[in-house]
Amino acid sequence: MVIRPSVNSAKCGGCLHCVDVCPINFARAEDGKARAVEGPFCAECGHCAAVCATGAIAHPGLAASGFERIAPDARLPYGRLLPFLKMRRSRREFKDERVPREAIEKLLAAAVQAPNSCNRQDVRYTVITDRVLLKRISAKISSDVLRLVRLMDHPAGRLFFRIFRRKEHQALEPFMPLMEAAAQAAAGGMDVVLYSAPCLILVSAPKGDPCGPEDAVYCAANIQLAAEALGLGTCVIGFVTEPCRGDASIRRMCRVPEGYEVKTSLIVGVPKFPYPASVPKLPPKAEYFG
Ligand SMILES: Cc1cc2nc3c(=O)[nH]c(=O)nc-3n(C[C@H](O)[C@H](O)[C@H](O)COP(=O)(O)O)c2cc1C
Description:
The structure is a single chain. The protein is of the alpha+beta class. The protein has 3 domains: 6-66, Alpha-Beta Plaits; 81-129 and 198-269, NADH Oxidase (3-Layer(aba) Sandwich), CATH 3.40.109.10; 143-187, no CATH class. It is built from 11 helices and 8 strands. The chain has helices at residues 17-21, 47-51, 78-87, 101-111, 131-153, 155-164, 166-172, 176-187, 212-229, 238-246, 248-253; strands at residues 6-7, 26-28, 34-36, 57-58, 124-128, 199-206, 233-236, 260-269. Strands 5-6-8-7 form a 4-stranded antiparallel beta sheet, sandwiched between helices. It has a two-stranded antiparallel ribbon with strand order 1-4. The protein has a two-stranded antiparallel sheet with strand order 2-3. A hairpin with a 5-residue loop joins strand 2 (26-28) and strand 3. Helix 5 packs across helix 6 and helix 6 packs across helix 7 (166-172). It is elongated, with a radius of gyration of 24 Å. The relative contact order is 0.14. Residues 89-90, 92, 235-239 line the site of flavin mononucleotide (FMN). The site of flavin mononucleotide (FMN) has 8 residues, from strand 7 and helix 10.
């Protein structure tokens, strides 16, 4: 069922911004004001009511409390944004402290502000703070990596991969030095998967949804920035995302919701120390046309 917005013409100032943002559901009335029309589709994005300066638009599908006035100083000047972005580092060194539940809720409140396809907002967050479970996940993944490294190190294993698992071999080959280093460090007792972080967040989208990876990654990017703003550190952990895709036992262990696929994973913790400097990044590889 399409839940439709409506216009209170007594309040409408006739700016017609709603028609600009949603010509499917709004049109110009004869008196020059806006009127709602029965369009075939409403994504319930809320843009119509948010753009209305006079509060003339109501959307019965959306909570009025969600339409908060934007403070005039809410826009971050670029001169403050860029240094903030430069401040974010992938953090792998954490204090032995829990991330408070309220802080995690703040991260997720930032996550849901991300853009998403058709405004479906169907991204799931699996937040794991159970230390025992975190250790089990880490131990399982690092022992799998160790096994794979040993197999790929063995001439017969390499040959097997080259012949029978060609694609996997090609995909893994560039990561072998990293995996070998990780396997060595793991053998020395280090947690090379989750770095003993107190919190792991798996960000999932519906299986087979073509826009799912982007939906999830935009949300995760917001989590990373919000964490930075709260003085927390994060790191994307491909070592968790990949096994969650291919190994049902890890999916179960990580409590991935049925019907969803992990698109990205983040560890979160209280950083042990600050970084006094940013790191050099390559200039953008951009082509300009026009
Ligand atoms: C898709 C992806 C997967 C990653 N996987 C891991 C990982 O498994 N372990 C890890 O320590 N860092 C991982 N990282 C973090 C990168 O190593 C890090 O972003 C990169 O070195 C740049 O450092 P910076 O984030 O501090 O700028 C991953 C990053 C991305 C985007």
